[in-house]
Amino acid sequence: MHSSISIIDLKPYNDECKNGLVEDISKACKHLGMFQVINHGVPYDICQTLMVTLQEFFDLPYEERALFFTQDHSKLVKIFNYYFKGDDQRKVSMWSETFSHPWHPIEDFTHHLPNNPPQYREVFSAYAKEIGTLMNKVLRLMSKGLGLEEDTLVKRLEERPNFYSQANYYPPCPEPELTMGLNEHNDITALTILQQFDGVSGLQVKYDGKWIQVDPIPGALVIILADQMQVLSNGIYKSPIHRAVTNKLLPRLSLAMFYAPNDETLIGPIENLINEEYPPIYRSYKYKEYMEEFYRQVGKRRKVKEAFQI
Ligand code: OGA
Ligand code: NI
User: Which UniProt keywords are listed (predicted)?
Assistant: First the structure.
């Protein structure tokens, strides 16, 4: 099997017959669990304007950004640093700064978002709406790719999923081999749509023990399957291990838009995918149980869904 990341053209989405597209998506979800999409419907200028706006946000003076610094993960709008704990239990910060807040329904949160840069609220809202439409398309294609009704995954993730964004800023790092922008991890949600700043690489996905670089392609977005998708599909779809390395000379920016279940949503292998030959490999759980396990493993190389394996 090839080990580079697929680039999938979503143009045939509106065609009556999109079997080829469903098959490509299904293959990519079963193989790497990560792929890039083009002709995805999110206008290029909206993507570009948001990346420039985020750069302006991270370039604000420290005192202004400091308003959002917190260690309290229950805060809606926050800046924090990821870290891991070494063998001696000392915290080691990642070479990055992370800015996170909810993105849907955006009208409910707009007044909590930064008003500097002044265009932030407007530009972010426009992007969030487009990403909502794209998430829906991708989830429909992914359902069909499992041989299920088109709306299965959306229904399983229920009416009020938890949507939040995470902008990652990686300053240039004089000695990239000594650190990491974001340590290797699985996304904990169901689905992630990631935009990378043009021209600066950093994202890598693990396959067969090797790291594959996911170079930014202007106008493309990266689709990353997350843990809940692996569990819902009973392991048919993969939640890939990935990380971000730093760059010696250039700053790098990425924006992840996450689609997570809400705390009460029951997650477990979808019934139609289970039979005698394919028994469930995970037990069902409420998403909040998964999150409790996630926080229990803070600072470690987490293995969260593994705790629910049968
Ligand atoms: C993430 C992530 C990778 C990147 O935010 O979960 O994996 O390229 N980001 O910044
Ligand atoms: Ni990630």
Answer: Iron, Metal-binding, Oxidoreductase, Vitamin C
Contact 238, 144 (CB under 8 A): no
Write the residue with the smallest CA distance to atom 1 of ligand 1. 256
Q: Do the beta carbons of residue 287 and residue 264 sit within 8 Å?
A: yes
Q: Which residue from 34, 51, 94, 192 has its CB within 8 A of the most atoms of ligand 1, so it is best to mutate?
A: 192
Q: Verify whether ligand 1 is closer than 6 Å to residue 293 (CB atom).
A: no
Flag whether 1 is in a domain.
no
Query: How many domains in the chain?
Result: 1
Q: Counting atoms of ligand 1 from 1, which one is nearest the CA of 168?
A: 10
Q: pLDDT, tens digit, for every residue of 147-180?
A: 999 999 999 997 778 899 999 999 998 888 888 8
- DSSP structure class, residue 87: T
242 CA: nearest ligand 1 atom: 7
| pLDDT tens digits for range 180-234 | 889 999 999 999 999 999 889 999 999 999 999 999 999 999 999 999 999 999 9
pLDDT of residue 162: 87
Q: Could you tell me the residue range of the domain that residue 99 belongs to?
A: 7-308
> Which residue has its alpha carbon closest to ligand 1 atom 6?
187
Alpha-carbon distance of 298 to 85, in angstroms, equals 8
Ligand 1 centroid–CA 244 distance in Å is 6
- In this structure, is residue 2 part of a structural domain? no
Q: pLDDT digits over 63-95, tens only?
A: 999 989 988 878 889 998 877 776 777 777 788
SS3 string, 25-57, reads: HHHHHHHCCEEEEECCCCCHHHHHHHHHHHHHH
DSSP states of 228-253 as a string?
HHHHHTTTSS----EEE---SSS-EE
Q: What is the CATH number of the domain that holds 23?
A: 2.60.120.330
Q: Is residue 172 part of a domain?
A: yes
